[in-house]
Design goal:
- The complex is a heterodimer of chains A (about 200) and B (about 475).
- Chain A is an alpha/beta fold.
- Chain A has 2 domains: about 160 residues, Aconitase, domain 4 (Alpha-Beta Barrel); about 30 residues.
- Chain A contains 7 helices and 7 strands, in the order βαβαβαβαβββααα.
- Chain A has a 7-stranded mixed beta sheet, with helices on both faces.
- The model of chain A has no long low-confidence stretch (mean pLDDT about 95).
- Chain B has about 475 residues and is α/β, with parallel strands linked by helices.
- Chain B contains 15 helices and 19 strands.
- In chain B, β4, α3 and β5 form a beta-alpha-beta unit.
- In chain B, α2 packs across α5, α6 runs parallel beside α8 and α12 runs parallel beside α15.
- At the A-B interface, α3, α6 and α7 of A face α2, α3, α5, α10 and α11 of B.
- The structure holds iron/sulfur cluster.
- Iron/sulfur cluster binds next to loops of chain B.
């Protein structure tokens, strides 16, 4: 996983609540067995419309996405995180995120920042002007800044932050606890009613 | 005295492998269900790292999302779908995972077969690369959906790093009115708390109306927990649960069965245990519901009208509501009962169990599907299909003009050939009405099986509470 430290980029505003993972990556692209090649299908149906935000010239190459509440709700498909990351988004700012999407994003080096509605509305207004409004998101400092003196602080889960900063692989982290796992399984397997198969 | 505990806390604590300081807890996974769509990249990850599947005895796989529902489905015409199913076969053979393949008598939607096999049991932790894993919580298991990186993690270690969710008790008290089903309970809950109303919580459904539900109904309620944003939904195991499980293939037998029941009886939430949040709903206030928009929270009672988007709280919300109305081609103020439909889909892991098919068959018995409507029934599993055929439900459906098909996810998400054409409007017993969910440009209204069946006959939504049953005696 690619580490996330500090990112400066233009910001694309997607002013919609409850953007679901079916929209982020429609089902027809879930039949592939590879982990790459999803970027071009991000928001596939919405991108058919020329006025969709990502089709507007001012937002080409944006790596930061602003969105409404409950971003990433619905299906557990990690393809949504792959599509965002492979399209070029490394950071999403929204008032709230759905649970499974949150963990999928973290595992793919995408930083999700939860901001209060008022702060987001301000950023949305500026981003909607379409004249290249940019933000700098620093995970090292837990700050969001712009060229006009804005400075916002944000909270992150300390463990997720370490993983993102270091680009750490979760399986490797868990395997450090191999002895605890062996001991647990010896105890736990004795309970017949916890077995998957009788 | 011991501190009273919630059922969630008991299951959680019994599955803690280790709680490393400053890191999420490592939770043991008792049962890992696998399907073709979210697993290929995970198996590929194992292969690249040279890792085996840590516990094949705790892993089960089936094919459901992509499989066609016609009789010749063994030969899948879509080459990409065929390749994905082929990949699952190869992966299961290579890693030693048991697969319930297309022609298995136990194939079906992954959330149907876990319970049917008796693999799903109270007190377990269950995961699957699918958000509707919450279904299994109906047995008093802690069950939740995961992403593909997590699938790989579970395959490799049989554990998951997890932050502890908060707890939310939703009690539905009293008796459900006539015509109001488990589906209406959960739609009613989502309508009240919103699609992010339970984000960050493990929900426990309780109250007399929940306890009165069959296992089928409980699964319907838990299934849609994710539609309220919840990590998981759970219902305390009781005699209904035990009666369902007894004798199933992977359920304990003989003395082990008695031991298991004794252990399961200790699972329900202790008297006086504290929840982080509580909500009580009076069952008599619930009605048959119909979603009007593109999110399951956009839901009203059958006797209601399409709402006005100006009622949204923020600009983003108002944009969402207006967008939904435009997509659904509806105008504010339109009575739900005047909305005409083109298609009916009776299926999915929400509502394709035997009880759902019985309820719908009872409605259509003696009627014909409206001439404009194309209606299909897709049983959730081979076992449900067989049972329904034994009871003659297939004949009732076919006589009424329904298409009777082979099990799979089908038009719940349209990854197989079963899809809506652009602009078609569908009454669906599934769980998601997102834009394009059932086919690009398709319009989905979520309803209970009985409401879907009645809509098929009338060609528009209709209040099931006033339905005239023609052959009530035909089915139990
Ligand atoms: S039936 Fe629908 S919701 Fe259920 S597992 Fe299949 S696609 Fe997912």
């Amino acid at each position: 996983m690619q580490p996330f430290t500090t990112l400066t980029s233009t910001v694309a505003p997607l002013e919609l609540s409850n953007v679901d993972t079916d929209q982020i990556i429609p089902k027809q692209f879930l039949k592939r067995i590879e982990r790459t090649g999803y970027g071009e299908f991000l928001f596939f149906d919405w991108r058919q419309r020329p006025d969709f935000v990502l089709n507007r010239p001012g937002y080409r190459g944006a790596q930061i996405l602003l969105a409404g509440r409950n971003f990433g709700c619905g299906s557990s498909r990690e393809h949504a995180a792959w599509a965002l990351e492979q399209y070029g988004f490394r950071c999403v700012l929204a008032p709230s995120f759905a649970d499974i999407f949150h963990s999928n994003a973290g595992k793919n080096g995408i930083l999700l920042v939860t901001l209060p509605e008022e702060q987001l509305e301000r950023l949305l207004l500026q981003a909607k002007a379409g004249d290249g409004y940019a933000l700098t998101v620093s995970l090292e400092e837990n700050t969001i800044t712009d060229a006009f003196g804005l400075e916002l602080r944000f909270e992150t889960d300390p463990f997720r932050r370490e993983c993102l900063l270091g680009g750490l692989d979760d399986i490797g982290l868990t395997l450090r606890h191999g002895d605890a796992l062996t001991a647990y399984e010896q105890r736990h397997d004795a309970d017949a009613w916890m077995r998957a198969r009788a | 005295m011991k501190q009273p505990k919630t059922m969630f806390a008991k299951v959680w604590e019994q599955h803690l492998v280790v709680e490393p300081a400053g890191e999420p807890a490592i939770l043991y996974v008792d049962l890992h269900l696998v399907h073709e769509v979210t697993s290929p990249q995970a198996f590929e990850g194992l292969r690249l790292a040279g890792r085996p599947v840590h516990r094949t005895d705790r892993t089960l796989a089936t094919v459901d999302h992509n499989v066609p529902t016609d009789r010749e489905r063994v030969h899948i015409k879509d080459p990409i779908a065929a390749a994905q199913i082929e990949a699952l076969r190869r992966n299961c053979a290579e890693f030693g995972v048991e697969l319930f393949d297309v022609n298995s008598a136990e194939q079906g939607i992954v959330h149907m077969i876990g319970p049917e096999l008796g693999a799903t049991k109270p007190g377990m932790t269950i995961v699957c690369g699918d958000s509707h894993t919450s279904t299994h919580g109906a047995f008093g298991a802690l069950a939740f959906g995961i992403g593909t990186s997590e699938v790989e993690h579970v395959l490799a270690t049989q554990t998951l790093p997890q932050g502890r969710p908060k707890t939310f008790r939703i009690a539905v008290e009293g008796e459900l009115p006539h015509g109001v089903t488990a589906k209406d309970i959960v739609l009613g809950i989502i309508g009240r708390i919103g699609t992010d109303g339970a984000t960050g919580y493990a929900v426990e459904y309780a109250g007399s109306a929940i306890r009165a539900l069959s296992m089928e109904g409980r699964m319907t309620v838990c299934n849609m927990s994710i539609e309220a944003g919840a990590r998981a939904g759970m219902i305390a195991p009781d005699e209904t649960t035990f009666a369902y499980l007894e004798g199933r293939r992977f359920a304990p037998k003989g003395p082990a069965w008695e031991e298991a029941k004794a252990a399961w009886r200790k699972l329900p939430t202790d008297e006086g245990a504290r929840f982080d949040r509580e909500l009580v709903i009076a069952a008599h206030e619930l009605e048959p519901y119909v979603t009007w928009g593109t999110s399951p929270g956009m839901v009203v009672a059958i006797t209601d009208v399409v709402p006005d988007p100006a009622l949204g709280a923020t600009e983003a919300d108002r944009n969402g509501l207006a967008r939904a109305l435009a997509y659904m081609d509806l105008r504010p103020g339109t009575p739900i009962e005047e909305i005409a439909i083109d298609r009916v889909f009776l299926g999915s892991c929400t509502n394709a169990r035997i009880e759902d098919l019985r309820a719908a068959a009872k409605v259509v018995a003696g009627y014909r599907v409206h001439p404009r409507v194309r209606a299909m029934v897709v049983p959730g599993s081979q076992q449900v299909k067989l049972q329904a055929e034994r009871e003659g439900l297939d004949l009732l459906f076919k006589e009424a003009g329904f298409d009777w098909r082979e099990p799979g996810c089908s038009m719940c998400l349209g990854m197989n050939p079963d899809i809506l054409a652009p602009g078609e409007r569908c009454a669906s017993t599934s769980n998601r009405n997102f834009e394009g969910r059932q086919g690009q440009g398709g319009r989905t209204h979520l309803v209970s099986p009985a409401m879907a069946a009645a809509a098929a006959v009338m060609g528009r939504f209709t209040d099931i509470r006033t339905w005239v049953y023609k052959q009530a005696e035909v089915v139990a």
